[in-house]
């Protein structure tokens, strides 16, 4: 199992468990995450979802798995993002180590993010010949300001958990060994509150940007697919696969 699902009280934890690849995501892992969210949504006993990894949160897409995808239509990554964006209950993320690509952009759709001060968040889309996804081309600027967002997205420069907290990308930065405890404590705080009020508050907070987010994510999907088929990305992928093979 590369995604484990456990429940303690009213908190369900979806944990990425592929440490040998720094939790790089495969299509199967995206499916498991989507299913975990759907099950948590449907279970009235679950009030909060906690997303976690291990020593590393998530190294982004597994490039070999990503490059091997042949079927047409939306990838499992897009299905997962749809499930996360539409999830009505609070989502808390516990981030340690590397958070790369979607490992960072998915945090924009979490309600609470606890990161280790030394975590390394990076969105290397341009370095891969690609473009941002998960609505980050809009949401990141709203969260951290246009100047930071443009630099982070254009340059792919890494950001520490401490810097991410100062900028407002994450809720709180704590020492590495305190991340999971702090994230669980915050999840349990939310889980103890009236669930209908939590869901309605989350809906209201997100309502103003809902239409713009949908349009942005569709534009990103179109651009991502076009860039993915382009020579820049294909050359980078070939180089990576030849080196790792």
From TrEMBL:
Origin, by domain of life?
Bacteria
Please name one Pfam family that this protein belongs to: ECH_1
Alphabetically ordered keywords of this record: Isomerase, Peroxisome
Keyword hit for rRNA-binding: no
**Record localization:** Peroxisome
- SUPFAM superfamilies listed in its UniProt record: ClpP/crotonase
User: Carries keyword Lipid biosynthesis?
Assistant: no
Q: Which Gene3D superfamilies match?
A: 2-enoyl-CoA Hydratase, Chain A, domain 1
- InterPro entries documented for this protein: ClpP/crotonase-like_dom_sf (IPR029045), ECH/Chromodomain_protein (IPR051053), Enoyl-CoA_hydra/iso (IPR001753)
The positions making up the signal sequence are: none
Q: Which CDD domains match?
A: crotonase-like
| PANTHER family for this protein | ENOYL-COA DELTA ISOMERASE 2 (PTHR43684:SF1), PTHR43684
Q: Can you say what this protein is called?
A: Enoyl-CoA hydratase-related protein
The organism encoding this protein is Sabulicella glaciei
């Amino acid at each position: 199992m590369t995604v484990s699902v456990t429940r303690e009280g009213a908190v369900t934890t979806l944990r990425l468990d592929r440490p040998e690849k720094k939790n790089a995501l495969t299509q199967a892992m995206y499916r498991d995450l989507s299913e975990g969210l759907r099950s948590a949504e449907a279970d009235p006993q679950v009030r909060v979802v906690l997303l976690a990894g291990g020593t590393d949160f998530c190294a982004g897409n597994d490039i070999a798995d990503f490059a091997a995808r042949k079927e047409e239509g939306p990838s499992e990554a897009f299905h997962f993002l749809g499930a996360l964006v539409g999830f009505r209950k609070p989502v808390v993320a516990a981030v340690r180590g590397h958070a790369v690509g979607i490992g960072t952009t998915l945090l924009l759709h979490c309600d609470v993010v606890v990161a280790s001060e030394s975590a390394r968040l990076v969105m290397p889309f341009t370095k891969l010949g690609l473009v941002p996804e998960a609505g980050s081309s809009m949401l990141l600027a709203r969260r951290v300001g246009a100047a930071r967002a443009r630099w982070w997205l254009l340059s792919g420069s890494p950001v520490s958990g401490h810097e991410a907290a100062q900028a407002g990308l994450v809720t709180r930065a704590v020492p590495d060994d305190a991340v999971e405890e702090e994230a669980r404590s915050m999840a349990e705080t939310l889980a103890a509150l009236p669930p209908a009020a939590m869901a309605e508050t989350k809906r209201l907070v997100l309502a103003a940007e809902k239409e713009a987010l949908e349009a942005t994510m569709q534009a990103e999907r179109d651009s991502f697919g076009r860039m993915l088929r382009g020579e820049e990305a294909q050359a980078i992928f070939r180089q990576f696969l030849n080196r790792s093979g």
